[in-house]
């Protein structure tokens, strides 16, 4: 590679001037070609089945396997895009069909208020003749008294009347739609039945299955009927998969597939729809002239001020809110927005050319989490928003929803504050004091008794698998953590192994030893003795332990090289279907037998090319099976331990759509690759013992006028905007894109609320709610000032993964570059009065070019390297599934000098002193041969030791006499009885503790092969195929100043 060497100690710097000078000889990799206008397909939306009127009763238990077909817009895809649900009109039609036969009570058709309303995110006035000013659904309620919350109302239950399985696939309205697959054969998998409750006012409430019981959209009034319910919105309403910024209007060069900018205009834009005046709002009233920190107002010329990277971790911007509001706001680690000042209109957002979206880490482990146990969970009657700190109390008895502005009554029970034991101060209740809160859900949030924790392990035991020796590690780890598996007395466990056949293990209580049952018919897999294969862990613990002890030895002599992964997954799915749960699959090679068999597709010669690489699945088998799993509340986690190409692009679908996770240990071998063994052990421990939520759904609501349209993460989108998460884990992140559907001119604040309904491992139904509040602004400058560059970069990365898959890698790379060019051009032309030379950026975006350059060099999107295809796919999986903080670390690692650690500025945690060295720019310019530098790249830590590193560090930290004695492969630091050793180890341990995965530490000498990896992460330097930061800035400037 042309990477310059490390500058000699004290010698002339070979830094940016030398190496990063003039535009590169290797040619610009940034072709800024026209970006395809990948308008996402717009779906005709169908009615929601949210049936949210809570009645204090326990619904009928129904099989959990079905899903209301009318709720059916079921989008799947790595990012799952929906057009916001728009027509209010079809509600009722779809949902109130004849009752199913077993129904004890004939549901009457809806009278009065309809429980079906679109989501708050989906107002579509164009398609919705609404009474003027009547967004508040209450406006057309004939009798308000019908709408008093009455949890104690008499309730009759009846099986649902609405979802007739026979309707599926018949019409647009009724059939679930799959954005990606379009495969009608999938539809049956998402057909669910539900329950209708007949409330005392005669209106029917349909409790559909889990996907809807969270309470969905508007529980509102009957709406005017649309004569043409099938046309919800024109395609023009759909949002491009990449923000306007991507739609480069003036393609600087080549490829010529651009679409005229005019076609990119949003059909939506500001809407004529007027919302009811807000009236008094104690929050907005308290807004006053606030100003940012003066630093935040600076305009920076990046070509002059090149070192913009702060020496301490970059903090998210603080929304420009009154401190009384801000102090109640959601922690940005859990919930943040790309723009902390929300543009008032889509037109303004379009001008800014920045993506608008949310990044969530909803199930993050929290030290403090207020949990409310109350029979009354107070929610907006219209939009089902949970009461939160940003609602306003009109008086003691009424509160106004901050999402739809409906005025709601304060229930009697809510008047009493359990914390202060005072009556009459509802605004002091914990629900109104905490932006993050968890509710114990009463029975109406369940469709069946909470499922038991069920864990099924599926092991590859082919010759290849046995060779890697992984079974030893995994079984040992399971033995060690068996008592720590989250669960209770109901916990169930089971095991399947497979090679060319499938092996089941009967662990029935009373057996003297586990009994192996072999099924060799992989064409039509059946489950022998289903009742004894998933067993109660407590009752059969000894048998389970026996099995785990003997399993690694059972196949040591195997000669079976084939892998029937697909049939094994089918068997596992059948076994788990009645309960749901977590399936952990360990695979070491390309599946070769039966359904789901795959062929090698990787062409090593094309690894470095941005074109023609196989990022898409070669079969839809894994996706379809994942959707089956999702329907039965089964999540599949894939552990891929393979030295060879295993087509992760195809295999990964099994986890992506079932809300599982993918773990990848390339070249795992128990002897040859001890660091992978260590990594697997550590990560398994976390995996087996971390918190888990079962049969979960998540919905994100936002203030009326905003619309959520594209989701990123591992899940399956049911019913337009409900994320189906058979499992939820504390290490998963999600992102969504938004647009401004209606002008927000009448409001100063908007809110976003995520609600995650899940079953805990203790069998409790719980709801975790996060609410974020942000100001609305009317000028472009304010939008820029509030930009959150990390969130923007994270969202762009998610969008770029989609673009890579749907178009091409080079397209995605162009789009990333264009995002910078377009937003900075917009800034330059609109908010800078005099056109200064240089590359002028707002302070908030000072790191934008750097982070985008880092993304271009990230494993997901890089070119010119020999990145294996599976490694690239895995990196893309990580982009989609990791919380932002880890994604940023993987993209732009932190570099520290560590040979001179001191206690200055150190932090203290539990009597441990943790040094906090400054973060350095990622350039060899910052290295010196007489030092040692630690690079924290998220999943890997690299400690580069310079040739002239001080003797003190060598002996006191590394425990070696001289440089030459540093082992070629060193992946651990000795614990020496020296302060230097203690500091270094404390720092590294602390870094590791910050994350759920286990970063391997590599100590790197100058001659180490790993040095190339270290230098690869030097984002600011030029590599063979990528520009240096300085070159990149020049390129951006050139485009911006055109
Ligand atoms: Zn509301």
Structure report:
The longest helix is centred in the C-terminal third of the chain and has 23 residues, at 809-831. Helix content is 22%, strand content 18%. The chain has 1042 residues and is of the alpha+beta class. 56% of the residues are buried. Strands 7, 9, 15, 24, 26, 27, 29 and 30 form an eight-stranded mixed beta sheet that branches. Strands 16, 17, 18, 19, 20, 21, 22 and 23 form an eight-stranded mixed beta sheet that branches. A five-stranded antiparallel beta sheet has the order 1-25-28-8-6, covered by helices on one side. It is globular, with a radius of gyration of 29 Å. Residues 1-78, 81-212 and 216-291 have low confidence and may be disordered. It contains 24 helices and 38 strands. Zinc ion binds at residues 380, 382-383, 385, 401, 403-404, 406. Residues 788-888 form the Sec23/Sec24 helical domain. Belongs to the SEC23/SEC24 family. SEC24 subfamily. Residues 1-29, 65-138, 241-273 are annotated as: Disordered.
């Amino acid at each position: 590679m042309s990477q310059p060497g490390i500058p000699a100690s004290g010698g002339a710097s070979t830094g940016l001037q030398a190496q990063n000078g003039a535009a590169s000889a290797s040619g610009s990799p940034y072709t800024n070609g026209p970006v395809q206008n990948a308008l996402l397909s717009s779906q005709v939306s169908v009615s929601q089945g949210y049936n949210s009127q809570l009645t204090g009763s326990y619904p009928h238990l129904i099989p959990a396997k079905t899903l209301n077909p009318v709720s059916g817009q079921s989008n799947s895809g790595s990012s799952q895009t929906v057009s916001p649900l728009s027509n209010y009109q079809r509600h009722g039609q779809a949902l109130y069909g004849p009752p199913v036969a077993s129904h004890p009570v004939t549901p009457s058709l809806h009278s009065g208020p309809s429980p079906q309303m679109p989501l708050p995110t989906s107002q579509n006035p164009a398609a919705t003749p609404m009474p003027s000013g009547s967004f508040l659904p209450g406006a057309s309620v004939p009798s308000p008294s019908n709408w008093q919350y009455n949890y104690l109302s008499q309730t009759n239950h009846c099986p649902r009347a609405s979802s007739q399985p026979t309707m599926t696939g018949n019409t647009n309205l009724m059939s679930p739609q799959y954005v990606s697959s379009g495969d009608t054969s999938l539809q049956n998998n998402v057909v669910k039945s539900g329950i209708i409750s007949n409330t005392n006012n005669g209106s029917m409430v349909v409790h559909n299955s889990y996907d809807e019981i969270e309470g969905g959209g508007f529980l509102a009034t009957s709406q005017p009927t649309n004569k043409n319910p099938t046309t919800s919105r024109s395609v023009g309403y759909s949002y491009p998969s990449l923000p306007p910024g991507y739609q480069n209007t003036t393609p600087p060069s080549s490829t010529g597939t651009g679409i005229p900018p005019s076609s990119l205009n949003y059909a939506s834009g500001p809407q004529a729809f007027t919302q009811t005046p807000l009236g008094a709002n104690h929050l907005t009233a308290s807004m006053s002239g606030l100003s940012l920190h003066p630093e935040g107002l600076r305009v920076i010329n990046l070509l002059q001020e090149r070192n913009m990277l702060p020496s301490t971790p970059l903090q998210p911007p603080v929304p420009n809110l009154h401190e009384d509001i801000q102090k109640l706001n959601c922690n940005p680690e859990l919930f943040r927005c790309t723009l902390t000042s929300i543009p008032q209109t889509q037109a303004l957002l379009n001008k800014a050319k920045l993506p608008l979206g949310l990044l969530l880490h909803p199930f993050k482990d929290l030290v403090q989490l207020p949990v409310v146990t109350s029979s009354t969970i107070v929610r907006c009657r219209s939009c089902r928003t949970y009461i939160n700190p940003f609602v306003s109390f009109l008086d003691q008895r009424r509160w106004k929803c901050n999402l739809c502005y409906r005025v709601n009554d304060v229930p009697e029970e809510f008047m009493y504050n359990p914390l202060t034991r005072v009556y009459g101060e509802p605004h002091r209740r914990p629900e109104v004091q905490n932006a993050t809160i968890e509710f114990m859900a009463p029975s109406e949030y369940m469709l069946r008794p909470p499922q038991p924790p069920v864990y099924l392990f599926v092991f590859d035991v082919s010759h290849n698998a046995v060779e890697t020796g992984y079974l030893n590690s995994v079984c040992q780890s399971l033995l060690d953590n068996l008592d720590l598996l989250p669960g209770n007395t109901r916990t169930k466990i089971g095991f399947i192994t497979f090679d060319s056949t499938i092996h089941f293990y009967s662990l029935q209580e009373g057996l003297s030893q586990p009994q192996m049952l072999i099924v060799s018919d992989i064409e039509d897999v059946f489950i022998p003795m289903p009742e004894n294969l998933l067993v109660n862990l407590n009752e059969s613990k000894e048998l389970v332990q026996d099995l785990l002890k003997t399993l690694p030895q059972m196949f040591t002599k195997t000669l079976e090289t084939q892998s029937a992964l697909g049939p094994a997954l089918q068997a596992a799915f059948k076994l788990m279907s009645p309960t749901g749960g977590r399936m952990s699959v360990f695979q070491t090679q390309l599946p070769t037998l039966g359904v789901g068999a795959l062929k090698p597709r990787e062409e090593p010669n094309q690894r470095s090319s941005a074109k023609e690489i196989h990022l898409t699945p070669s079969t839809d088998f894994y996706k379809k099976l994942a959707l089956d799993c999702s329907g039965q509340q089964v999540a599949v986690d894939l552990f891929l331990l393979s030295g060879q190409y295993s087509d992760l692009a195809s295999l990964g679908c099994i986890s992506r759509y079932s809300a599982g996770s993918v773990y990848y240990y390339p070249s795992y071998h128990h002897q040859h690759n001890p660091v992978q063994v260590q990594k697997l052990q550590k990560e398994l421990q976390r995996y087996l013992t971390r918190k888990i939520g079962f049969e979960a759904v998540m919905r994100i609501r936002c203030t009326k006028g905003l619309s959520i349209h594209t989701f990123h993460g591992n899940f399956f989108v049911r019913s337009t905007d409900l994320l189906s998460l058979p499992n939820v884990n504390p290490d998963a992140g999600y992102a969504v894109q938004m647009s401004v559907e209606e002008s927000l001119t009448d409001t100063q604040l908007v809110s976003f609320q995520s609600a995650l309904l899940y079953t805990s491992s203790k069998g409790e139904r719980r709801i975790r709610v996060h609410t974020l509040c942000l100001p609305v602004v009317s000028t472009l400058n304010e939008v820029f000032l509030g930009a959150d560059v990390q969130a923007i970069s994270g969202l762009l990365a998610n969008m770029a993964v989609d673009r890579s898959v749907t178009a091409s890698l080079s397209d995605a790379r162009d789009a990333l570059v264009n995002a910078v060019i377009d937003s900075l051009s917009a800034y330059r032309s609109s908010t800078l009065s005099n056109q200064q030379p240089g590359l002028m950026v707002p302070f908030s975006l000072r790191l934008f070019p750097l982070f985008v350059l880092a993304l271009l060099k990230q494993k997901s999107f890089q070119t010119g390297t020999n990145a294996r295809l599976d490694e690239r796919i895995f990196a893309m999986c990580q982009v989609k599934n990791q919380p932002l903080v880890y994604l940023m670390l993987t993209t732009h690692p932190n570099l520290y000098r560590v040979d001179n650690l001191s206690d200055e500025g150190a932090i203290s945690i539990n009597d441990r002193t943790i040094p906090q060295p400054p973060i350095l720019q990622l350039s060899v310019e910052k290295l010196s041969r007489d030092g040692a530098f630690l690079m924290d790249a998220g999943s890997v830590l690299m400690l580069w030791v310079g040739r002239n590193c001080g003797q003190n560090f060598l002996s006191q930290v590394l425990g070696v006499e001289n440089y030459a004695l540093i082992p070629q492969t060193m992946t651990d630091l000795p614990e020496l009885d020296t302060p230097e050793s203690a500091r270094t180890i404390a720092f590294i341990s602390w870094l590791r503790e910050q994350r759920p995965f286990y970063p391997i530490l590599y100590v790197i000498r100058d001659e180490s092969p790993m040095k190339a990896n270290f230098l690869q992460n030097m984002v600011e330097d030029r590599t063979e195929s990528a520009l240096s930061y300085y070159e990149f800035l020049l390129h951006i400037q050139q485009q911006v100043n055109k």
